[in-house]
C-alpha cells in the first residue's frame, strides 16, 4: 500500500474511502442524488488514473484530486455509445441501486472500443476539439491557450481594468467593457 502527503505535510496511509467520501460531499452540497456503488466505481477509476504519479510509495493529495476531476470531466460524445450499451444490457440510469453492475460497464466500454484511460490520462493538444468547445463563454480558445503558455512560463496577465488582453469577453457585455 502507499501513503498520501497531505497539504500540511503530514503523511498518512492511503484509504480509498476518503475519495468516495469527498465525492459524496460534492453531490450532497448540490442536492444531487447518488448511488454508493457508482461512487465506489468512480473512486476506483480515480485511483487507476493517479497510479503513475506515485513516487517512492507516496502521492500528494493534490494529484489525487486532479485525477478525480479528470475522470469526471473528460468524457465526450463517444461515451454515449457505452451508456447506450449498458442500457441495452439492462442497466438503467434512473435506478442505479437496483441495476448497477461494474462488470456491465467494463464490458460496454470494451464492446464500444472506449479506453477509459484515454479520457483521464492523456495529454491533449491545443487543437483538439473538446466536448465543451461548443459553449460560448465569450473568452476565445486562443486566449486560453495563450494564458496556459504564459502560466507555464510563470508570467502574469495584466489586470483587465488597466490593459485589455483581448480575451473576447468584452463583446458579451453591455457597453463592451469588462469592468462595466
Topology at a glance:
Elements: E1 3-5, E2 11-13, H1 16-29, H2 36-50, E3 58-60, H3 61-73, H4 79-88, H5 96-99, H6 102-111, H7 116-121, H8 141-152
Features:
180 residues, mainly alpha, 3-stranded mixed sheet, 3 strands, 5% strand, globular
Order of H and E elements? EEHHEHHHHHH
Class by helix and strand content? mainly alpha
Number of helices: 8
The number of distinct β-strands equals 3
Let me know the average pLDDT: 76
The low-pLDDT segments are 94-98
Report the sheet with the most strands, covering strand number, pairing sense and barrel closure: 3 strands, mixed
The strand order across the widest sheet is: 2-1-3
Radius of gyration, CA atoms, in whole angstroms: 20 Å
Shape: globular
Specify the helix fraction band.
40-55%
What's the N-to-C terminus distance?
54 Å
Describe the oligomeric state of these chains in a short phrase: single chain
Strand content: 5-15%
Task: Describe it.
With 180 residues, the chain is mostly helical. It has helices at residues 16-29, 36-50, 61-73, 79-88, 96-99, 102-111, 116-121, 141-152; strands at 3-5, 11-13, 58-60. The chain has a 3-stranded mixed sheet. A hairpin with a 5-residue loop joins strand 1 (3-5) and strand 2. The chain starts with a strand and ends in a 28-residue tail after the last helix. Residues 94-98 have low confidence and may be disordered.
